[in-house]
Design a protein that fits this description.
alpha/beta; 4-stranded parallel sheet; about 50% helix; globular
């Protein structure tokens, strides 16, 4: 979770709505996660940090146990962890690229879903929001095969989940963001600028020209959609994929 990251924006929005928030991250992001917890606590919210590699089933189980011990229940799960290793050229993707994407984007996400369902069922229901991408709906030029494939898989798995847990009062939906103004996007602009021998500003302008609204989303704009689907205002919505992409949804 970085200073301008989506995870932080989601946590802040949920805390503003009165949720007790658990922020997770790998050990490498410990400082950032703890800083975000402190920020929520300083603004009067309740939050805790749990370090977990979602591709490790034992760590997922331990993380859920920690949350249950602290709060006794789980009402909302937002799966925002994701990776995008690999190449847009099929032959350039290694087994490691495929496995790394699958391990986090599909297997890790669904492991967390599986772990929280008993707690949600016990308290009468809950809401799961999985964060995919427009790459989970359609491909666009330059996107890595394993990323597109696993984000599509996440969408499919969430739709199956929604059917399975509906009778338990649990909803499951997907948010599919397009471009988001994060540190990761700034790095992408820099890489495009270098590859095409243009300035970072020119690279950003070219990318923004492909978005009907003419700009990337702010993290808070994606977080608003996630908080909506997580909360009572979306009580009759389950099994959907909501693009939040400024009109940028190729192939739909």
């Amino acid at each position: 979770t970085k200073a301008k990251g989506l995870g932080k924006a989601i946590a802040l929005k949920l805390a503003e709505q009165g949720a007790k928030v658990v922020l997770t991250g790998r050990a490498s992001s410990k400082d950032g996660v703890e800083a975000n917890v402190t920020e929520i606590q300083n603004s009067g919210g309740e939050a805790m940090a749990v370090l977990v590699d979602v591709s490790n089933p034992q760590e997922v189980d331990n993380a859920i146990k920690q949350v249950a011990e602290r709060f006794g229940r789980v009402d909302i799960l937002v799966n925002n962890a994701g990776v995008g290793f690999g190449s847009a050229m099929l032959e350039e993707n290694s087994d490691k690229d495929w496995d790394a994407n699958y391990g986090v984007n599909v297997k890790g996400t669904m492991a967390l879903c599986r772990g929280v369902i008993p707690y949600m069922e016990k308290s009468g229901g809950g809401s799961i929001v999985n964060v995919a991408s427009t790459a989970g709906i359609a491909a666009s030029v330059g996107m890595p095969y394993p990323y597109v494939a696993t984000k599509h898989a996440l969408v499919g798995a969430t739709k199956v989940l929604a059917l399975e847990v509906a009778a338990k009062g649990i909803r499951a939906n997907v948010v599919a963001p397009g471009a988001i103004n994060t540190d990761m996007l700034q790095a992408a602009y820099a890489a495009i600028a270098e590859a095409e021998s243009v300035s970072v500003e020119e690279a950003a302008a070219k990318e923004n020209a492909s978005i009907p609204l003419g700009r990337p989303a702010e993290p808070a704009e994606i977080a608003d959609a996630i908080v909506f689907l997580a909360g009572p205002a979306a009580s009759y919505i389950t099994g959907i994929v909501l693009p939040v992409a400024g009109g940028m949804a190729p192939g739909i």
